[in-house]
Write a structure and sequence with these properties.
It is built from no helices and 16 strands. The chain has a 6-stranded antiparallel sheet with strand order 1-6-2-3-4-5, with no helix packed on it. With about 190 residues, it is an all-beta fold. Strand 3 and strand 4 form a beta hairpin. The relative contact order is 0.13. It folds into 3 domains: about 60 residues, SH3 type barrels (Roll); about 60 residues, OB fold (Dihydrolipoamide Acetyltransferase, E2P) (Beta Barrel); about 60 residues, Nucleic acid-binding proteins (OB fold (Dihydrolipoamide Acetyltransferase, E2P)), CATH 2.40.50.140.
């Protein structure tokens, strides 16, 4: 058990019977009335963000999770297959348990979060940045735009489509941010 004084980003807790993590919190002491804590909680089972206000000093039940390194092997008709990099044990996850799955390529390292008490996989997280090759994009034409930060669509080697700057060409390797699917930089 923990109180609102123990809140920090990344704290895992049981909220309404669901495993959640604190994404953001703010202690508020208004001029009138008691103090309270505003939070944004991420449900680890479905990824939804919930907003909840706790009274100052309120007790919450914390949970224990384990972070384990896995390697993405392949995709089949039911979902994705991964291998534990330490024990070589393989697990299968359904498609909806992996966010931005179209940014994964075979052999890539990912991190799984397991509920320690039940040995149940809650979510699969990709690294913040992945390096992928552009397989198709339209060539940029000089004078195409009046603004300096114009973007065009690009298809990556995994089949994902993102927006990239006009100077990116087919065959370039780029770094992609997996949290918001944005272009990061060109890599050599």
């Amino acid at each position: 058990m923990a109180t609102t004084a123990d809140f920090k980003n990344g704290l895992y807790l049981n909220f309404n019977g669901k495993p959640c993590s604190i994404v953001w919190f703010q202690h508020v002491k208004p001029g009138k009335g008691p103090a309270f804590v505003k939070t944004k909680l991420r449900n680890l089972e479905n990824g939804r963000i919930l907003e909840k206000t706790f009274s100052a000093g309120e007790r919450v039940e914390t949970i224990t999770v384990e972070h384990r390194s896995y390697q993405y092997l392949y995709k089949d008709e039911d979902g994705f297959n991964f291998m534990n990099t330490e024990t070589y044990e393989q697990i299968h996850l359904l498609t909806d348990m992996v966010d931005n799955a179209d940014l994964m390529k075979e052999g890539q390292a990912v991190e799984m979060i397991f509920l320690a008490d039940e040995e149940r996989c809650l979510t699969c997280e990709l690294p913040t940045y992945v390096e992928l090759q552009v397989t198709y994009t339209e060539p940029a034409v000089k004078g195409d735009t009046a603004s300096t930060n114009a973007l065009k669509a690009a298809t990556l080697e995994t089949g994902a489509e993102i927006m990239v700057p006009l100077f990116i060409n087919q065959g370039d390797n780029i770094r992609v941010n997996t949290t918001d699917r944005s272009y990061g930089e060109r890599v050599k």
